[in-house]
Amino acid sequence: MKKIILQIICFSLCVISAQAQSLYGLTSYGGNDGWGALIKFIPATNNLTVAKSFESFAANPHYTNFIQASDGKLYGMTLYGGSHLPGGRLGSGGGAIFSFDPSTSIYTKLMDFDGINGANPYGSLVQASDGKLYGMTSAGGSNDMGAIFSFDPSNSVYTKLKDFDGTNGRKPYGNLFQASDGKLYGMTYEGGSSNYGVIFSYDPSTLIYSKLVDFDVTNGSSPSGSLMQASNGKLYGMTPGNIFSFDPSTSTFI
Prior knowledge:
Blueprint: E1 3-8, E2 11-19, E3 22-27, E4 37-42, E5 47-53, E6 67-68, E7 74-78, E8 96-101, E9 106-112, E10 126-127, E11 133-137, E12 147-152, E13 157-163, E14 177-178, E15 184-187, E16 198-203, E17 208-214, E18 228-229, E19 235-239, E20 242-247, E21 252-253
């Protein structure tokens, strides 16, 4: 699966090779109504077309990548829009989860974020080994500080798993990812003991959330990206100005 990310000022384009000859991507703005677009690009003919223009019921996919799940469909999220919070959060609603089937070109809005179940997701979804899609919202939840959730594409069941409360982190902007130990790892932009964000894990098999590291400026602050696991088993990430590693087997942060 190939991914290309282009960022020009506030325009962002994320593309994924869903079929051998076609690339699919998302734009934050533009399209028929200015709410962003789902685009298809064919490299062989240099042909770019709009497969779907987002409207106010699912608007502005922002800093989010498509993922292609095991059912072959592409899944993504929008930052704004949805049928809930009309004229509310930032004047644009709480966002939505959607799918796009590249074999049939069918777009389906799957669920709306309504504030209580989360709102305004910035990052992307990830499919875990249990087949469910996992993600985070930057706002909403019981404390309006964001939430961790799962979405089962086989039955369209959405489950809010964890509310951020400040102490355990708040306002995540990146993605979750599943490490070799089966746990999901992520970071928050704010919250923790110094309010500069945290590194955390969430175990989907036991439903246990664990705060692992508090950022305190000396070790970094306010990460807006995501973690990755290298071949040595360690997790690597960045904060503005720092690159760090975290060893989940020893809980050692460097």
